[in-house]
Amino acid sequence: MDGVRYRTAAGRWVLFATVLGSSLAFIDSTVVNIALPMIGRGLDAGSAGLQWTINGYALSLAALILLGGSLGDRFGRKRIYLLGVAWFAAASLLCGLAPNVEFLVGARILQGIGGALLTPGALAILEASFVPEDRSRAIGAWSGLGGIGGALGPFLGGWIVEAASWRYIFLINVPLAAAVLWVTARHVPESKNPDAAQKLDVIGVVTGAVGLAGLTYGFTAWTANGPGDPMVVAALAIGVLGMVAFVWNEHRSPHPMLPLNVFKTRAFTGANVVTFLVYAANGGVFFLVVLNLQVVAGYSPLIAGIALLPITLIMLGLSARSGMLGQRIGPRIPMTVGPLICAVALAWMAMIGPGASYATDVLPPVIIFGLGLAALVAPLTATALGSLPDAFAGIASGVNNAVARAAGLLAVAVLPLAAGLGAGELTDANQLHPVYRNSMLLCAALMVAGGVVAAILVPTRLPSKSPVKSFCDPCAPPVHPRETETVKSSQP
């Protein structure tokens, strides 16, 4: 099959299946933030339990997303996508029925595994299903519709939590996933990459997951047990050893999940360092702002849920223009200025406290923050993907996605600790308020650091590249590894 056309019933079904399926994983990672106070009260959960409700999902998603793309490339993108959606639905059902916070965290970890299987498959299915001349159009529609879903997610989540129960933000995934499964099974064609690596980097998957899990658990437990606790010390040690083993394995493996030679390219390394700093700040913002608005400022879940909606709307309206501007003037300026604009907004957000007015205290910095992200994100993504040869497009996309998710994961674990939470509770207004203020200032510092790194490492222009000659899965190994053994460094 050569592919389907965009303006056909078959094309619309493929687009529907990929948009709705990928939106499940994306929206679920943001909606849960709105429900945290309700979950804390309903399950009598402390701050560590609430952090792990976020981190459990993010950990398994970040650790396995590269593997998810490789599995689809090897065994069939449709098959792995169906498995991921079904897995996500089953885990969502377990989340909705959780009797305690420990069960909920375990179910969220399972949910993240499903997300790692389905997330890279959505874009790969679009690339493989549509005829070449319609692929850009289909991907643009997928991105736009997914953005609208992300914008509506917090609103719907706040309404569900306020009108019914926090459990329904998970249970609603089950019928939606059933619709995705039915449409995908009937209307999405199967595809594979015949040049995919025949061996999976199992050691890389295990060591990377152990490293992230150890660091995340250690920093999360630190707030409750103190730095001298044996479990904290052991977890941090295991985390460090796991990450060292991951790097060593990727250097030695003949089929690495992450070929380390891609970091010889200065622009690629710079883009991913900026990604880590910026998305660590974003992880703290989207975790703590909504929580602070409810616990400290006294907003309802619905109002807190839509408080950050202008960020998504601004990015929907301006990201394409920002990408065109970055293409015209080069990525260095927008990637430097964007984080600095975000830092100004976060310093303003740090002042949101009891009785804060949305119109004067919340909305202005939210708008400024959205403008900063709109200036930054499109050039950042273009630099991460465009700084390597075309045969490394899949690796570039997968690495950048994994870096962003790992940064958000560690931010949720580390920021409350760094901000002075100690043994306090995130659901107590008196304890959360100073932690929130300090965390926003730390996030502002991360944004400034991101701008400085961009000014130093990101080139004014990316090297010109030949057109893509073959499809490469967004998270798959290089299509022609023998043709790309050496990646030349980009000069600024």
Can you walk me through this structure?
This protein is mainly alpha-helical. It has three domains: about 1-190, MFS general substrate transporter like domains (Growth Hormone, Chain: A), CATH 1.20.1250; about 200-255; about 260-480, Growth Hormone, Chain: A, CATH 1.20.1250. It is built from 16 helices and no strands. It has helices spanning about 10-45, 45-75, 75-95, 100-130, 130-165, 170, 175-185, 200-225, 230-250, 265-295, 300-305, 310-330, 330-350, 360-385, 395-420, 430-455. Helix 2 (about 45-75) runs antiparallel to helix 8. The longest helix is centred in the N-terminal third of the chain and has 35 residues, at about 10-45. The protein is globular and about 60 Å long. The model is unreliable at about 465-490 (pLDDT under 50).
Unreliable spans are 465-492
Domain module tally: 3
CATH topology call of the largest domain: Growth Hormone, Chain: A
Radius of gyration over all CA atoms, rounded = 21 Å
Tell me the series of helices and strands, N- to C-terminal: HHHHHHHHHHHHHHHH
Question: Total number of β-strand segments?
Answer: 0
What profile does the largest beta sheet have? none
Q: CATH top level of the largest domain?
A: Mainly Alpha
Known CATH architecture of the largest domain: Up-down Bundle
Fraction of helical residues? over 70%
Give the rounded overall mean pLDDT: 80
Structural class: mainly alpha
What is the end-to-end distance?
Answer: 43 Å
CATH homologous superfamily placement of the largest domain = MFS general substrate transporter like domains
Percent strand = under 5%
